[in-house]
Design goal:
- The structure is a single chain.
- The chain is α/β, with parallel strands linked by helices.
- Strands 1-2-3-4-6-5 form a six-stranded mixed sheet.
- The radius of gyration is 37 Å and the shape is elongated.
Length: 481
């Protein structure tokens, strides 16, 4: 029967469940946040042109040497090497942007090059993959041009800020006897004619340079952010994955999930059909034959008929017991009336193995009905496996929901027992069908069952809370157990 979690001394310790991610600290906003990111953005921008020029020299040398030797086999392989080198420089750009504080850019789904698709297909895939050509164009043309511009502006702005703020220290050591043009004098003549002669040109030049240095310093974080965003925009357009690829991947995942769900439901229906055929159906046939025999003997041999009636009553009772057992494969009314927590508590109470039930579901869990129903079936199957195969004396059932920082919601269901272990999701094992069911829900089944035990099985199922927007979203990533 089920026991309260506080009295589960005999039960194995509940597995550690990854806690919900703490709410992220409110990010700094405004001008102060721009200054906080200046060191990383400066490091990104100052290295941009050296890396871009290095990529241009290396990739152009290899690529155009391969083009010149295209008639020879070695030329083709040199071009392929150039494609992969350009891919490396493009990936480096994505990593540097992430380090500079920009949001993650989804990378392309590169074709497999491990030979599984054939040697020639893997070798020549860069020629037919548009991403390789975009990475090559980015390395040879776009990035050098953009990097030279951003690097020049970066150096000019840093030099202007530092030179203007420190000019009053070092400029007195520079001779200016033959200097005939003073910028402050020229500006004063344009603003207020005749006032330039009232201002000492050397002092005016120092003040003007200081003001320019302050202006460069105050606008420096804005310029750095703009240059970094320019590189980020170029990288997103040329180095990121295409939206069509994300849609194709989503369709493939949904197809795989649907196939797994269909296979799991088909297996469940076949098992139920087999159980009904081998159990209650055979008993009902026997009951029908007994009733026909009773009808024939009722007048001629009442004593024999009475004995057959007793046997028929036993047959009817056993058939009812089997039907009740089979009906547990359907969602109980308690699940619909009081929710998943109450249904799992009743399920744990019926288990022949002592089960400690930890209910981490809040009153506002807002679980969709299909998720509740599938979670109930998964828990029922796991507890059945514990009772039949694990040789365990105690178990623990834990369920909870959690919301991640990316907005996804997960239902975590764990079953731990102190049995002999050895559970596996390999084909032919008892957990293979459960794995299909969980993958059909776009979740993940985690199994840790070394020989000798204990066994820990966790089902992580994503869900959309009832009442939340159910529009299309990016594919979710299973949480780390």
């Amino acid at each position: 029967m089920a026991t309260d979690s506080t009295t589960a001394g005999a039960a194995p310790a509940a597995p550690a469940i990854a806690p919900a991610e703490p709410a992220a600290a409110t990010p700094r906003r405004g001008y102060g946040a721009l200054w906080a990111s200046v060191p990383r953005e400066l490091g990104f921008l100052i290295l941009t042109m050296p890396i871009a020029i290095t990529g241009l020299v290396v990739v152009s040398t290899v690529f155009f040497t391969g083009v010149g030797m295209i008639a020879l086999v070695v030329g083709i392989f040199l071009m392929i090497a150039a494609f992969f080198t350009a891919r490396g420089f493009g990936t480096l750009e994505l990593v540097r942007l992430r380090w500079a504080g920009r949001s993650e850019i989804r990378r392309p789904q590169w074709p497999r090059t491990d030979g599984t698709g054939g040697f020639w297909r893997a070798t020549f895939s860069p020629f037919i993959d548009g991403h390789y050509w975009l990475y090559l164009l980015h390395t040879l043309v776009v990035n050098p041009i953009v990097s030279i511009f951003s690097w020049t502006v970066t150096i000019a702005w840093v030099s202007g800020a530092l030179g203007g703020l420190t000019g009053w220290i070092w400029q007195p050591f520079i001779p200016a006897d033959d200097r005939g043009f003073w910028l402050n004098q020229w500006i004063l003549d344009r603003i207020a004619p005749g006032t330039a002669s009232l201002v000492d040109p050397v002092a005016g030049e120092r003040v003007l340079e200081l003001l320019l240095g302050v202006m460069f310093l105050l606008t420096l974080p804005l310029v750095f952010r703009g240059l970094t965003l320019m590189h980020d925009g170029v990288a997103r357009g040329m180095l990121g994955a295409w939206r069509s690829e994300a849609l194709e991947r989503e369709v493939a995942e949904l197809s795989a999930s649907r196939g797994a769900a269909v296979q799991a439901e088909d297996a469940s229906l076949r098992r139920l059909e087999r159980d009904i055929h081998d159990g209650p159906q055979q008993r009902l046939v026997r009951l029908q034959m007994d009733l026909a025999s009773i009808e024939r003997r009722l007048d001629q041999d009442p004593e024999a008929a009475r004995a057959l009636l007793a046997e028929a009553r036993d047959q009817a009772r056993e058939t009812l017991d089997e039907l009740r057992a089979l009906s547990r494969g359907f969602a109980p009314p308690l699940l619909q009336d009081r929710g998943l927590g109450s249904a799992l508590g009743a399920l744990a109470a019926r288990s022949p193995v002592t089960v400690a039930f930890d209910n981490g579901l809040g009153a506002d869990a807002s679980l969709p009905a299909p998720i509740e129903r599938n979670a109930y079936f998964i828990a029922a199957e796991l507890l059945t496996n514990v009772a039949k195969h694990s040789e365990a004396t105690a178990a623990r059932l834990r369920v909870q929901t959690r919301a991640l920082a990316d907005g996804t919601h997960w239902l975590d269901l764990w079953v731990t027992d102190n049995g002999r272990g050895g559970a596996s999701v390999a084909a032919g094992h008892g957990l293979a069908g459960l794995d299909d069911r969980v993958r059909g829900l776009r979740g993940v089944l985690v199994v840790d069952s070394p020989e000798g035990g204990p066994t820990v099985v966790g089902a992580h199922i994503p869900f959309q809370p009832v009442g939340a927007d159910s529009g299309a979203s990016e594919p979710v990533t299973p949480p780390t157990a």
